[in-house]
Amino acid sequence: MTNTVVVGTQWGDEGKGKIVDLLSEYADYVVRFQGGNNAGHTMVVNGKEIISHLIPSGILQQKKCFIGNGVVVDPFVLLDEIDYLADNNIDVSPNMLEISNRAHIIMPYHQEIDKAREIKKGKDKIGTTGRGIGPCYEDKATRVGIRFCDLLDFDLFKEKVETVMAEKNFYLKEYFKTDPMDPALVLDQFENIRARLLPYISDVSVSLDQGIRQGMQILFEGAQGTHLDIEHGTYPFVTSSTTVSANAASGSGVGPGQLNEIIGIVKAYTTRVGAGPFPTELFDETGEKIQKTGAEFGATTGRKRRCGWLDMVVLKNAVRLNSLTGLAITKLDVLDDLDEIQICTGYEYCGKITTDFPAQIDLLAKCSPVYETHPGWKTPTSDMTDFDDLPEKAKAYLARIEELSEVKIKIVSVGPGREATIVKENIF
């Protein structure tokens, strides 16, 4: 039995959705273990683009899916997504999807606080999506969060919401100078959707344990990327959850000894959405070409992604933090037309070279990338399905990534569709 974790190694948007969709064929269960609807996974199935924000990508393979306790869930977005998938003839019934009773609910006041905070920060804003993810995790940490199990007793739910909203309204009115929210309206919204949500609520930890005992193979699906991790990322330009592989256990309620394979998704170059330091970012025609060819727009926000060369300091940091056992390289085809391709092997700061990812955000912003240059292969790869058929220069580029990272490449993606994939080594 192989239980596999899929994580992003860069700043998110590495193409995890496609890889999870691909691997879901061989899994029995697919679990989302952190983040919220600030993340988006884009899959292309039979030429049609499907975007999910909360429900694991495995639902497209009609595998049983779980939203773990480490996820913060906007129930209105969740129900919209269920309807959207159902309209695309995908079964998202309670038999196919379970939501942890311990998962925290993103409340309407979380979103108002999130937006008001960004407005108040002005030019110093961190680029949050404004979906209430951060404020929800804040309430979780300060022990005033609302969980899905609270919906089981609506009188208790009402009492908790009214108590919390007294504080939130004071915050909104007195600090942000915005209008307070009406608790009655918020409660009315939840009363209207409660009946739809209740059949999905379960103890996901128990369900997964039962599955493991029955020999089920589980795929754990991360959101965002390693360098958006609240603990290890480019703080404060990070997300509000732990994105690394260790949280697959904590965020879903299984023991870490149940995690067997950990696959890091690596875009063949690097992208980043929103603010924060990005040492290999390109501001020239090459950067624009990569952005256009790769259709680099955020699946959740539609924001243009910043583009740059592959950064091995970032990747090696992810290898260590996640205990990666394999790599999946995505969007190799985006580099097909380039004459030269560069790989960052280290950072220069004050005349010294480092290959360690610095903690200080100001220092990182002042680092200059140290590059090695590789010849482009100038050959289309999007129709290739066998690794041996790749151009020799493309194989050399991939071999160098393996050499520098000290991790084997197991999958190479050369296009958005399922069929545009080279499986070098079957993970399951």
Automatic annotation (TrEMBL):
The active site is at 13 (proton acceptor), 41 (proton donor), 140. GO terms for molecular function: adenylosuccinate synthase activity; GTP binding; magnesium ion binding. It is an enzyme of class 6 (ligase). IMP binds at residues 13-16, 38-41, 129, 143, 224, 239, 303. SUPFAM superfamilies: P-loop containing nucleoside triphosphate hydrolases (SSF52540). The keyword Nucleotide-binding applies. This is Adenylosuccinate synthetase.
